């Protein structure tokens, strides 16, 4: 025997009945080797594989649990946001209604104020017209009186002598003075 591989080759030529040896037939030995390897892997790797699977399962369950918690929090926040939105919408509607009623109230106040102003302007106009009418009537009266007085004086001057004329003038001036005092 020159080396260890020669001894395996030599053992491979032994008959398989009743003895222990290595089979060098590749097709026959692969199935046996694979089954031995799988058996060893299953026996020794079962704990490692089950630990890996358990760890993976726990991570997945934790992720699902965290997702459920986050989902619950998100739903709770969504409900709070909806409640706030509903409250804000109700307040906006209330402001809108109050705004419309305030606008209507201001509109009515403006209309009433405009009517009052128009009434006052109408009253001022009527008072001004009455004042101007009275002023015009008084001016016409004074002119008529002055013309009548001048006409009467002209008639009296042509008909009266100086002494009668002076007495008439004095009497008329007295009446005229009294009349001016009354009108002033």
TrEMBL record:
Alphabetically ordered keywords of this record: ATP synthesis, CF(0), Chloroplast, Coiled coil, Hydrogen ion transport, Ion transport, Membrane, Plastid, Thylakoid, Transmembrane, Transmembrane helix, Transport
UniProt-annotated location(s): Membrane; Plastid, Chloroplast thylakoid membrane
Superkingdom of the source species: Eukaryota
Main localization category: membrane
Keyword Coiled coil listed: yes
Coiled coil (UniProt feature): 64-98
Transmembrane segments: 26-49
Gene Ontology CC terms: chloroplast thylakoid membrane; proton-transporting ATP synthase complex
Membrane topology recorded in Swiss-Prot or TrEMBL: Single-pass membrane protein
GO molecular function terms attached to this record: proton-transporting ATP synthase activity, rotational mechanism
PANTHER family per record: ATP SYNTHASE SUBUNIT B, CHLOROPLASTIC
Other remarks on this protein: In plastids the F-type ATPase is also known as CF(1)CF(0).
Purpose: F(1)F(0) ATP synthase produces ATP from ADP in the presence of a proton or sodium gradient. F-type ATPases consist of two structural domains, F(1) containing the extramembraneous catalytic core and F(0) containing the membrane proton channel, linked together by a central stalk and a peripheral stalk. During catalysis, ATP synthesis in the catalytic domain of F(1) is coupled via a rotary mechanism of the central stalk subunits to proton translocation. Component of the F(0) channel, it forms part of the peripheral stalk, linking F(1) to F(0).
The name this protein goes by in its record: ATP synthase subunit b, chloroplastic
Species whose genome carries this gene: Salicornia brachiata
Gene from which the chain derives: atpF
